[in-house]
Amino acid sequence: MFGLKKEINKGRSWKRLEKQAKRMRKIEMRDMFDKDLKRAEKYSIKFDNMLLDFSKNLIDDKSFSALLKLAKDAKVAERIEQMFAGNKINTTENRAVLHVALRNKDNHPIYVDGKDVMPEINRVLAKIKNFSEAVRLGKFVGHSGKKLTHIVNIGIGGSDLGPKMASEALKKYWAKDIQCYFMSNIDGTACVEILNKLDPETTLFIVCSKTFTTIETLTNAKTCRRWLVDALGEPAVAKHFVAVSTNVEEVAKFGIDTENMFEFWDFVGGRYSMWSAIGLVIAIAIGYENFEKMLSGAYAVDKHFKTAEPAKNIPLVLALLSIWYNNFFGIRSHAVIPYDQYLCYLPAYLQQLVMESNGKLVGRDNKFVRYQTAPVIFGGAGTDVQHSFFQMIHQGTSMVPCDFIVPAISHNEIGEHHEILLANVLAQSEALMKGKTMSEAAAELKAAGKSKEEITRLKKYKSFKGNRPSNIMVFKKIDPYTLGMLVAVYEHKTFVEGVIWNINSFDQMGVELGKQMALKILPELQGSRDGSKHDSSTKALISYIRRLRR
Ligand code: G6Q
What we know:
Structural class: alpha/beta
Bound molecules: glucose-6-phosphate
Number of strands: 13
Shape: globular
Radius of gyration: 25 Å
Strand content: 5-15%
């Protein structure tokens, strides 16, 4: 019902794109810009407070319309409708995929198994509002009556990356007296380094786990619980621990009063959950009003995604461009570079969103796919990364398409800082596109007074092939609404890619095997069981590490 009848790479639109890619390989972007003075305008989309300029890509009218045809043939529009309607498009887990319901601001009913999910969502949103306000106003206080000012989010993966990224992105909106911490790794260091900064009397732990069975989260939560009880006694737990989960039983078993539990539902995937109570820490930090603005920004993009014509549909266009390079140019990576320090965790967040959603090799038709799916996503904040991996992006043997995310105004406008930052991002994108020919490099060397021999020796090293693609997304400022928009754009981009690759973007079975094996290895490392069934490498490593730890 949700898959394609025929493998997408056997269809006419795929074949057409193969031909187009062959043709486009011989075309230089700088020539296309010279020939068409309106290119930037033509390949830009303005929506709400966002501008996407995708003109610095290897596309022209023919190849772009061939890409749009691929989306049509893959039935993207129908799949979008199915997702928003609450159909169970997560077929391997038989679940609806409704993170969009969490920000359904016009509150229209959305049905799953014949039941409208909105009343429950609204009930939990009201609970988030009341609780976050009570903490911020000092009405919900710690065991000894002190205000809770240190908020620790304990969670991992989807229960960490979204809240952490969004809280950092919106740090300028944090209440002055509130500090947030994110404890995810099982590594004791992560736990100890955070606890060392805290005072039990003023600390609130939010244990975030959809399943409430994740070993990292539960181990960290237990350690924190012990730390709190040692300092304040058992009765303090009710005032210092809340849980966010779909699993009431496990929360109760852990010893958190289910009154202090915020629910969400199996139709919300972990990596799509920052809009749910998993975002409680965000609401406490920035205030519920701002949290709602974030939901509104995402909702605006949801509506845009559902209704904009394909050529002007931002998530769709971004997905098609990504597929263009991935499947027709053999490109295996994609960089995301926010030019805003507050967005420093965005690349890590997107790594999970994209690679966990679409890093798969079995299609919805239960057959192995015979084309590339998710690329490797990496990135970091500009300008920092210009001084690290940009060498490869400019002169490496493979092209790396980039997304540059650019707020026109910084939250910290001091001196010329932001103008220098902006000049850099624009320069990077132009340099990637234009490059520098060998004769241009030679002319520069000559102007710098180099000898003929030196010019001959250096001009190749100093040249840049150019023709390297990038998208620029410009916002006015990264505020809650804008952040909501930005994240929703990437969620829907990821969705479209999954649809075209005919995979289920909403399960994550690939993370299970390692987890299962770790559970077997643990007692062997601890010496309570023998590890005879391992390969010789694992076996030797277990005994070597055991010797070191003795
Ligand atoms: C996200 C994944 C995964 C998940 C973590 C934590 O989509 O499902 O990253 O979020 O494994 O799971 P729990 O929230 O159940 O602890």
